[in-house]
Amino acid sequence: MSFTRVLIANRGEIARRIQRGCRKLGLETVAVFSEADRDAPFVIEADHAVCIGGAAPSESYLNVDAILDAARATGAGAVHPGYGFLSENAGFAAAVEAAGLVFIGPEPGAIAMMGSKIEAKAAAEAAGVPVLPGYRGTDQSDARLLEEARALGTPLLVKASAGGGGRGMRLVTDLADAPEAIASARSEAKGAFGDAAVFLERYAPRARHVEVQVLGDSHGTLLHLGDRDCSLQRNHQKLIEEAPAADLPEDLRDDMRAAAVRLAQSIDYRSAGTVEYLYDPSRGEYYFLEMNTRLQVEHPVTEAITGIDLVEWQLRIARGEPLTLAQTDVRFDGHAIEVRIAAENPAENFRPETGRITLWAPPAGVRLDSGVAAGSVVGHHYDSMLAKLIVHAPDRAGAIRRAVAAIDTFAVGGVGLNLSYQRALLTHADFQALRHHTSGLPEMFPDGWTQPTPDTRDTGLAVMALHLHLAPAGTSPWESLGAWRLTAPAGRRGAASYWTTSLDDPIRISGTPETLVAVLPDGQSLTTKTAAMAADRLSGRVDGVPFTRIAHVERAGDHWRVHLQTPAGMTLTDLRTLEDRHLARASVGASGADLLTAPMPGAVAEVRVAPGDTVAAGDTLVVLEAMKLLQSLPAPVAGVVAEIYCAPGDTVAGHAPLVKLDPEEQT
Question: Which residues does residue 208 pair with via DSSP β-bridges, in sequence order?
Fold first, then answer.
């Protein structure tokens, strides 16, 4: 079972994390990559790298033959699957072992058993682990499922047996909706997992998601490494994870941990795994959900509070080494929080963000597991999660403060991220008071969430940061910026003007860095003394009080963008100089409102109209798939479909034309 070279059958931040674990043990790494990832950090940092196919996962990261060919070609002795892709595919694990390689994970049989939610719940029941009331029988007829649904009562969940991540799951609150819920869950499960089997279980509103990390070797030792809370979720996808799970009755916590070990022992589990529970505080009860037979995204919070390197132990166990820990050796220190950093826009229904990262300035002093760097291209082919921010503190309140402070100093350009939204979750009263639950986001943001915008003071400071950035050190801005700055539209001599999204109302800057005055469109002004920009810091004094703010200035297409640290977090301000304003005004109206274009790169999943169809404004014309999400693209105006430029299956670039409309005449 010895090996010296490990092929990592994954990408992004988890590939880099496994590479760090391999280097710690003196093992060489092999990266397999798609054409889209050719220049990714995990490829550059590997000892060996092999391109295994095109950007689509089916052509690369899900291509078992190509991965095994790469292992043979590079002399790898083991394969680590990471998480996602093939990590819980029993067939892949068996194929790795059949090829004479070591699979760094559990036995294929354990993966297969826990991969079936029906079989997993039966195993849990046999091990004495509580499960939710429901139906998990082999009779999958409509009549039997509807009969069981009536017996169970509402609310209930229809869930895919082979599912995960919320796919193939439907909530039923009215039994009249059960037939449609069963049909749609089956259809999605068949398409996503190749298995249409479903089961029913009672739905527990306001429940928390608690899980227990287990670790077992091939010599009969199996431990738990404590618990985690992953209750902040959107569409059954975790957003923020923490360890340990806070505010659990200690006897119940002990019972959860013991039950997880009992279940893992009953299937002779080896390697790292996670037993997931639903905890219902109103009943004081917990129920088995599933067992993940792989490393979890949230494993760093367990590492933080235990000091145990899970990847290192996965590698050691795969080499046949026994665990050198007993359960009594596992100690828990403080509290850890992990924030998932994703390329998406939460203010616009979590629209995926794509493009090239032009600025990557993460916070110092905290752990960041990242799959990208400045210059990385974020495409539409893979999951939107780019990185994970992990903090550790003596207690939960301290961990929250550290996480917020880290987000407040994290600046990224070129691609939008969900950092402001995650900050809003961390600072929300429900999260801080432990009132949050797995379906609680609508309660936390009943009117939706909006991106915070800079206030008057912060807008003035952002303009000052750009103003000083555009002036070479030691010269005055109006001298360095050229004679055009002295024309009437720019203001009198010694002044300059900048514009935000409004091209009509300028923000005027006058004075010298010793005394710099910004006058905003509403007439408010801000005066700074000894203002300076150096090393991405804006400093000076306002009303005699010194300040220093992180301030990154970058060119963003046809304008400037200022990333400014504020008391409310990192804010973005888009600004235009005089020439930018002229160019922007010249381009107004250049793109017709009668043309539907792709808001991002993606694959066309559906075209719902045909030439000659009459549509209303807002009707869905095209469905685009990007980063595993479906985006419905609405008609920009009412009219008649004139031309269609795409078909299902097409891959389109951002801003590509999709549908041309003949607008209806206004009367």
Answer: 279
Q: What's the token pair of residue 646?
A: 């795409």
Which residues, in sequence order, are CB contacts of 617 under 8 Å at separation 6+? 634, 635, 636, 637, 638
Residue 553, SS3 per DSSP: strand
User: What is the predicted pLDDT for the residue at 586?
Assistant: 63
Share of the chain above pLDDT 90, in %: 77
Q: What domains can you pick out in the chain, each with its CATH number?
A: 5-104 (3.40.50.20), 121-132+208-333 (3.30.470.20), 133-202 (3.30.1490.20), 340-447 (3.30.470.20), 456-586 (3.30.700), 595-663 (2.40.50.100)
Q: What is the pLDDT of residues 85-130, one digit of tens each?
A: 999 999 999 999 999 999 999 999 999 999 998 899 999 999 999 9
146 burial level (CB within 10 Å; 0-12, 13-18, 19+): middle
Contact present, 18 and 31 (Cβ < 8 Å): no
Cα angle 118-120-123, degrees, rounded to a multiple of 5: 115
- Count the Cβ atoms, other than its own, within 10 Å of residue 587: 10
In whole angstroms, give the CA distance from residue 214 to residue 218.
14
Nearest-5° angle of CA 99, CA 78, CA 161?
75
Packing angle of the helix pair 64-74, 90-98 (nearest 10 deg): 30
What is the chain's length? Answer: 667
User: What contacts 143, CB < 8 A, 6 or more positions away?
Assistant: none
- The pLDDT of residue 493: 41
- pTM of the model as a whole: 0.85
Instruction: List residues bridging with 489 in a β-sheet.
Output: none
Per-residue pLDDT, 482: 43
pLDDT score, position 592: 59
Q: What is the CA radius of gyration of the chain?
A: 28
103, 111 contact by CB (below 8 A): no
The chain-wide mean pLDDT, for the chain, equals 91
Q: Give the model's pLDDT for residue 476.
A: 53
**Closest CA relative to residue 391, chosen from 418, 367, 374, 408:** 367
Residue 204: predicted pLDDT: 86
Q: How far is CA 4 from the centre of its chain?
A: 33
> pLDDT by residue (tens digit) across 170-225?
999 999 999 999 999 999 988 888 899 999 999 988 999 999 999 999 999 999 99
Q: Is the pLDDT reported for residue 505 higher than 90?
A: no
Kindly compute the dihedral angle of the four CA atoms of residues 346, 347, 353, 358, in this order, to the nearest 10 degrees. -110
Confidence of residue 590 (pLDDT cuts 50, 70, 90): very low
> Exposed, middle or buried by CB within 10 Å (0-12, 13-18, 19+), for 296?
buried
22-26 — which CB contacts under 8 Å span 24+ positions?
A: 22/315, 24/309, 24/312, 25/312, 25/315, 25/316
Task: Place 486 in a pLDDT band, splitting at 50, 70 and 90.
Answer: very low
Partnered with residue 71 across adjacent β-strands are none
Please give the Cα distance from 511 to 495 (Å, whole number): 7
Quote the Cα angle for 70-72-77, to 5°: 105
Judge contact between 36 and 52, C-beta under 8 A: no
Please give the order of strands across the beta sheet that includes 102-103.
Answer: 48-53, 28-34, 5-8, 78-80, 102-103
